[in-house]
Design goal:
Layout lengths: L10 E2 L33 H4 L1 H5 L6 E4 L2 E11 L14 E11 L5 E3 L1 H4 E4 L5 E2 L1 E2 L10 E3 L4 E10 L6 E5 L8 E6 L25 H20 L3 H6 L3 H4 L4 H15 L3 E8 L8 E9 L4 E11 L2 E5 L2 H7 L5 H6 L1 H16 L9 H10 L19
Helix pairs in contact: 8-11, 10-11
């Protein structure tokens, strides 16, 4: 839940005792305390705790620690837009660090952008993380052996920030790996979305297959994130209209509730684009099978926003997630609890009828078991109880 918190406090004190340190103003941070040297009695290891000094990492360099090969691919400044506004200071900038993690071990590993990464300036002050509608996903989560995860971590920094560096502190290693980034003013800014004065090329027949591939890829990436319970990624890749319906904490809690209730692990996924990618909303059907043999087919929407394909909820999906309903009421209420109970009952008994549940509950039951033992989708159109 912490990964999506958008409260930006600029640069804050790294380490130290907050009760003894002077408070920092919005534009003038408090001085950092000198770090204490590592103790040999406490297990301190100079080589492990200071690899950045020896390796002199820069953009494009990789390090390997605790079964993870981490690479800083690049950094960029993301634009301030109507949807992306600095909170602490209107002059602040959004800095995005593009990272790739490869699991080079024989076991699954986890990476946390919030807990393992710190962006600092030359004075040792750290920047809080935020999210941006144009960031390339979120670089974190569980990674299986021989697989990779890529994405961006976004920070809000003052434009005059100097000597920026990105510290990576893997949980198990006890060491710190540092990439030198430089001054904020020397980092390239990503282009703003094109204005109306810059004409958009007419779509051509030859471009359509590539566009469909992009939509299908975005849908597959989204539902892969659902499977690994990466709610920060899914929230960042909702379209603005859907995201406005769900505060971030509500989104995390409700998604985790369904993940814990269903307990399904993805086996295969296939996406079919149902209409032209030139339409304002592109419908897709996502076919998923799970390791226990369960299959779920879901029709949903994707729209192009800020140069990327974002997930837009249908009315049926909003009926299931109940935007604006507090989590406690959501779990205790008839919709959430009945959806979970009805799904279990349908799987066990196969005796649920359309007149016994709401349409949203019927759709959730259908999606939990694509074989439709309750015959809720009599016309085989993918929508339950629509007759």
């Amino acid at each position: 839940m912490l990964a999506g918190v958008g409260a930006i406090v600029g640069f804050a004190l790294v380490g130290g005792d907050d009760t003894k340190a002077p408070q920092a103003s919005a534009n003038e941070p408090a001085p950092a305390k000198d770090p204490e040297p590592a103790s040999e009695e406490a297990g301190g290891n100079t080589e492990a705790s200071q690899p950045s000094t020896e390796q002199d990492l820069g953009i494009g360099d990789s390090i390997e620690a605790e079964g993870v090969e981490a690479t800083l691919n690049g950094v960029r400044i993301l634009p301030t837009t109507d949807l992306d506004q600095p909170i602490e200071n209107p002059d602040n900038r959004f800095l995005a660090a593009d990272l790739t993690f490869e699991n080079v071990s024989d076991e699954a590993v986890s990476v946390s952008s919030l807990l393992e990464f710190v962006l600092k300036n030359e004075e040792g002050y750290s920047a809080s993380q935020t999210v941006h509608t144009q960031q390339k996903g979120l670089a974190e989560g569980e990674i299986a052996p021989d697989e990779k995860a890529s994405g961006e971590i976004v920070y809000e920094v003052p434009p005059e920030s100097r000597g920026l560096q990105l510290d990576y502190k893997p949980f198990a290693s006890g060491g710190t790996y540092t990439w030198t980034i430089g001054d904020a003013q020397g980092i390239a800014t990503a282009p703003q979305p094109e204005e109306a004065t810059s004409p958009t090329p007419e779509p051509t027949t030859a471009a359509s297959p590539a566009s469909e591939t992009e939509v299908a890829g975005a849908a597959e990436d989204y539902y892969q994130a659902v499977d690994r319970e990466d709610w920060a990624y899914t929230y960042a890749n909702l379209d603005a209209a859907t995201r406005a319906l769900y505060p971030e904490d509500e989104w995390y809690l409700k998604n985790q509730y369904f993940a814990d209730t269903e307990g399904l692990k993805l086996s295969t996924i296939d996406v079919v684009v149902e209409n032209s990618t030139s339409d304002p909303e592109v419908g897709v059907t996502v076919y998923r099978t799970f390791k226990d043999g369960t299959s779920i087919n879901r029709y949903t929407l994707f729209v192009q926003e800020d140069g990327a394909w974002k997930h837009r909820f249908t009315e049926e999906e909003n009926a299931i997630f109940e935007p604006g309903v507090p989590y406690e009421e959501f779990v205790a209420g008839s919709s959430a609890s009945a959806t979970a109970d009805s799904s279990a009952s349908a799987a066990a008994d196969g005796d649920i009828n359309c007149d016994e549940v709401s349409q949203a509950q019927a759709q959730a039951i259908l999606e939990s078991d694509g074989s439709d033992p309750n015959d809720l989708d009599g016309d085989d159109n993918g929508t339950a109880c629509d007759g």
